[in-house]
Specification:
Oligomer: single chain
Strand content: 5-15%
Shape: globular
Order of helices and strands: EEHEHEHEHHHHHHEHEHH
Length: 265
Amino acid sequence: MAAGPVEGELVLLLHGWPEFADCWTPVLHALGSAGLRAVAVDQRGYAPGARPGEVADYAVTELVADALAFADAQGAERFHLVAHDWGGLVAWVLAAEHPERLKSLTVLATPHPNALAQAAAEDEEQDRRLDYVRVFRREGGVAEERLLAEGAARLRGVYGGRVAAELVEENVRRLSEPGALTATLNWYRAPSGPLAVEAGRITVPTLFLWGSGDLALGRGAAEATGAWVDGPYRFEELVGASHWLPEEVPELVIPRLLEHLSGRD
């Protein structure tokens, strides 16, 4: 999906689980209307033609390489990166390892992975919030069976009623295709532990948006994220919003994002 003039500054948008590129639709069009070249992609495992079969194929190093390749395909030496959920983990790593490629970083919902790891180690509540990841990591198709049982009732329930029903149904349809759900869950299975992703310090201008109603990612990790950012940093709590910020509250995300992108070179 793309919007805006081809000569505009590239804004690459990375979705999370269980989302696709179209989770960004309102944000994408707003960026395009502002004269930016917004591109949202279906990442590895989500596109029918890009579902390698091995868990190792979904290592973060591969996902970061994919994101850079998307930017290269657009001819962008430097670009703005916007990401949500698992896309956010990829974005934190990319920003730490390749700051020369980024004009700015914006992450929705997902704390810096080191802040999340510390919070999970020190806070039993945050650790319990990640129990779903432990289920997803189990071998033998346990998660797939549970999520797709009874007409994919649990998969629909993941969105907590915060995402439009039409988009939920379209997501469920796509994830019910042979091999699709396993491929997307392999993102969780590739790390050595639950969301065990390491990222270095961040030097690029960074905006981090977090919803106070996020059931998976708690306040401690969100507030600790700033300690990992050395560049210009802005953290905003979206009071009452859930984890699903791109779909649920684009009207809150868009003005903050446009302000953050303005003047970054």
